[in-house]
Structures are given as structure tokens and as C-alpha cells.
Amino acid sequence: NYNSNKIMNSNRGRYKFNRPLVLLMKKGGVIMKRLFTILLFLVSILSLQIVAYAADDATLNVTGTVSEENKTITVVIGIDSPTPFCGCSFNLNYDSEILKFESLENGSVIENATVITNENYDKNIIRVVCASARELPQSGKVITVTFTYDTNENKEVAFQIEDCKIAGVNGEKIAFSVNNASVNIPSDAKNDS
Q1: Which of 22, 71, 94, 115 is 20 to 30 Å from 121 at the Cα level?
Q2: 14 pLDDT higher than 80
Q3: DSSP string, 2-40
């Protein structure tokens, strides 16, 4: 009789505390499965949107204009990005044998960003780095660079963007294409004779 009471009491104690836990685990398991399924569904939907953003390429456009009167070339670098971005960096390559750097002006796209430019980055390179804690305008002028030239010969001068990176608002890399430019410096007809 003593042994049967001991076993009954020990079983009662075990079920008394474990039974709600077992029921909770069974119910919690169903709830956890449902939450996991919903979470997995949301992650798959969000990843589809990220892939859709990544498919759109930004475009950097380089244009150049010659002023024969002032013997200057003005180079404008613009951006058109369907994807929101908050920073970019690039090198502008030019021919320092023909051109002399004069000035650099920030454009409307980066006017509210932190901008670091280095005109002496290398012999033929101007380095531009900009970053912002907020989204930058998705299209417009990034920088305007002015060069002078001292030649009377007909020369073609190229301007190329290299080592470019564009960062999205969440730090992701944004794919891009570049339209580089070349400018023709006309010969001075008065000095050719």
C-alpha cells in the first residue's frame, strides 16, 4: 500500500507541472510553425523586391564643352539612377599633358552630402567621394570640373570615369553604366600660318 501511494503521488507531481508545459509545446509548435511560414513568406517577398531594384542600372554621363574664347573645357558628370542611393565614388581620368585643372564645383545631387575631392590623386586623375546619411537625388549634376588648355593644335581629349562605386541606401552595391566623353579642341587658325 505504501509503494502504490508513493508512485501515485510521484506521478501526480510530474503531471501537475509538466502537463501544461506539454500542452503549451503542442500549441506553441503549431503557432511557431505558422509564424515561421509567415516569416518565410515575407522574406521571400522582400527578396523579390530587392532583386527588382538590383536589376535597374544607374547611368553616369560625362559631357564636355569647349570655350575657345577662354581656352577652357567644362566637364559635367551627371547621374540618373532609378534606384535610391546615398553615396558614390569615382575617378575622373583626363590628359594632364594637354589640360590643367582649374576648379571643381559640387552639383545638385551631392550638395547635401559629405564630399571629398582630391585633384592631385594621381597625375591624370581627380578622385571624388561623397556620402550621405539620407537618400540623395536620383538624377542631376554630380560635379562640374573646369580645365584650361594651352595648345593651338587640333586635339581630341578624352574624359573617362573609372573605379566607380555607387551605394544604395542599405549599403548594397548598385549596378551602373558609364557614358564617357571626348572633346575636340579646335586648332587656332590665326597661329597656324
Answers
A1: 71
A2: no
A3: HHHHHHHHHHHHHHHHHHHHHHHHHHHHHHHHHHHHHHH
